[in-house]
Amino acid sequence: MSPRTILRSLVHRIVAHPDIAPTFTAHCACCGWTAEPSTDGEHIDVECIEHAGRSNHRRFTRIVTGSAFVVRENESDYAPSSKKAAASSGG
């Protein structure tokens, strides 16, 4: 008897992790100044404005880092626990 391969298609989507806030930071494109990472995006914007006021540097790279996870169709938007994730991945 030959082995069978079963293929199935599942709908997946990616969602933001509800328990982990995004982290914001910024870098000056002129001098390398960097804002301390924060979960408050407005605070980072204020730091950039203050840096611009002191230095007249006006170009910044703003970075938002967030955590996310993949949810299968018909699953709720919850973050899978490490036990459940390990069990479903065979680990």
What does this structure look like?
This protein is an alpha+beta fold. It contains two helices and four strands. Mean pLDDT is 84; it is low at 82-91. 24% of the residues lie in helices and 24% in strands. It has helices spanning 41-55, 82-88; strands at residues 12-16, 23-28, 60-65, 68-72. The longest helix is centred in the middle third of the chain and has 15 residues, at 41-55.
The gist of it:
With 91 residues, the protein is of the alpha+beta class. It has 2 helices and 4 strands, in the order ββαββα.
- What is the terminal-to-terminal distance? 29 Å
Give the CA-based shape.
Answer: elongated
Q: Major beta sheet, specifics?
A: 2 strands, antiparallel
Q: Segments where pLDDT lies below 50 for 5+ residues?
A: 82-91
Which structural class is indicated by helix and strand composition? alpha+beta
Order of SSEs, N→C?
EEHEEH
The radius of gyration is: 21 Å
List the helices and strands and how they pair.
Layout lengths: L11 E5 L6 E6 L12 H15 L4 E6 L2 E5 L9 H7 L3
Antiparallel strand pairs: 1-4, 2-3
Question: Which properties best describe this structure?
Answer:
91 residues; alpha+beta; two-stranded antiparallel sheet; elongated; disordered C terminus
